[in-house]
Amino acid sequence: MGADSVVWFRRDLRVGDQPIFLAAADTGPSALALFVLDPALLDPSGPARRTFMYGCLRSLDEALGGKLLIVRGDPAEAVPRIAKAVGAKAVHVAADYGPYGTRRDEAVEKALAGDGRELVRTGSPYAVAPGRVTKDDGDPFKVFTPFRRAWARHGWRGPADTSAATVEWIDPSDKDGGPRAVRIPDDETVDAVVPDPGEDAALARWDAFRSESVDEYRERRDRPDVEGTSRMSVYLKWGCIHPRTMLHDLSRKRSDSAETYRTELAWREFYADVLHQRPDSARKNYDRSFDALPTASGKEADALFEAWQQGRTGFPIVDAGMRQLREQAWMHNRVRMIVASFLVKDLHLPWWRGARHFMRLLVDGDLASNQHGWQWTAGSGTDAAPYFRVFNPITQGERFDPDGDYVRRFVPELADVPGKAVHQPWKLLDGVPAGYPEPIVDHKAEREEALARYERVKAARR
């Protein structure tokens, strides 16, 4: 049996709030559900992110009655071939605005058109698609605050009523030549604890957060020692829930905390917009004057980077964050900023080394948010006056982990150090506890060195 269309899933692994189902139903009553295991995306991902994705695919396949076709290969070859095999008139997707996704979809669109078929884009992983919110003169925003105001004024549609989409999913078992279809891969060996995957898990976590915790979000979100964040980033990454669903639910909340959470969703959309406008910023400085910033390299720099990776810097809040990353494939956002600042401003290493390490380990690794979060901390991104912001890992620890509980949880060598004394173990009467390193740098001296190096950037702007 043929199909009127192909629904190609990517970063939208759910059946609820799916406008592409409505678009597919307009093409015809039957559709083939497809996911392509693309080596260009799989290979750079770490085992935690791949394992979570596999779980999401199993959840989606179950929701579709076991009718999700999985293939492996280059989408530019696989998608047109499958569309032809089932006689589909169109392939339906949610638009992808990332650098690779844009190139991939253009290649697929061209191949489909050569065979008389169409690539139909409906919606995106964002409440407001990148490029939609602009200044009055049509230029993109480069600063977050005016973007957020314009984004809020623009608004977004409510959740799509998928029940109105009368799509009959065809059985793919005898399509695409049989052997070239593959089963969903087994979970990989992962040292980290991976969150429960899939749409049901996303909705359950979101319902619990908005009913029990959102009103405390503003006060608790910067505290890594408490459960103050929603942990929804991984579900947004894979589209197990759409941000418009979350914004719709938040519209019923009239609190400062709910507004703060909406602002965090706006940051995600801002960074997606920035990357869309400047795809080169995924690998290069957004502010090219930062190309003049001297960074460390060589064997000593590599040794410092390894100490940072392993959580062996001698600065407890930094080490706790890096160990949390390994144990949970996730890190609290406040701590992400602290460890990023330490890498680029205490160790003088380039931001992209840290960003690449994060993308390899993070289960919620999102290119736009990760790269531009790093650039914000490094000073090379969209922030207007960032060069003098150098996080002090001691005072940051004492402020946001005041009782030391977060550090003690992830740095067992310091488990017996009481209270906030855990943030300066070198001041203990008996010295640093056995097994824990002395600080690898002098923060005060490296702060001055960082500011001196930033003078090169200021000179490059003149």
What does the secondary structure layout of this molecule look like, with pairings?
Layout: E1 5-9, H1 19-27, E2 30-37, H2 39-42, H3 47-63, E3 68-72, H4 75-86, E4 90-93, H5 99-113, E5 118-121, H6 144-154, E6 168-169, H7 199-212, H8 217-220, H9 233-237, H10 243-250, H11 256-277, H12 299-310, H13 316-328, H14 333-346, H15 351-361, H16 367-378, H17 393-400, H18 405-410, H19 443-461
Helix pairs in contact: 4-5, 6-11, 11-16, 13-14, 14-16, 15-16
Q: Notable features of this structure?
A:
single chain, 462 residues, alpha/beta, 6-stranded parallel sheet, 47% helix, 6% strand, globular
**Average of the residue pLDDT scores:** 93
Shape: globular
Terminal residue distance:
67 Å
Biggest pleated sheet: 6 strands, parallel
Low-pLDDT runs: none
By secondary-structure content and strand pairing, the structural class works out as alpha/beta
Record field, number of beta strands: 6
SSE string, helices as H and strands as E: EHEHHEHEHEHEHHHHHHHHHHHHH
- Computed over alpha carbons, the radius of gyration is 24 Å
How helix-rich are the residues, as a percent range? 40-55%
Could you characterize what this model shows?
The protein is α/β, with parallel strands linked by helices and 462 residues long. Helix content is 47%, strand content 6%. The chain is built from 19 helices and six strands. The chain has helices spanning 19-27, 39-42, 47-63, 75-86, 99-113, 144-154, 199-212, 217-220, 233-237, 243-250, 256-277, 299-310, 316-328, 333-346, 351-361, 367-378, 393-400, 405-410, 443-461, and strands at residues 5-9, 30-37, 68-72, 90-93, 118-121, 168-169. Strands 1, 2, 3, 4, 5 and 6 form a six-stranded parallel sheet that branches. Strand 4 (90-93), helix 5 and strand 5 form a beta-alpha-beta unit. The termini are far apart. The model has no long low-confidence stretch (mean pLDDT 93).
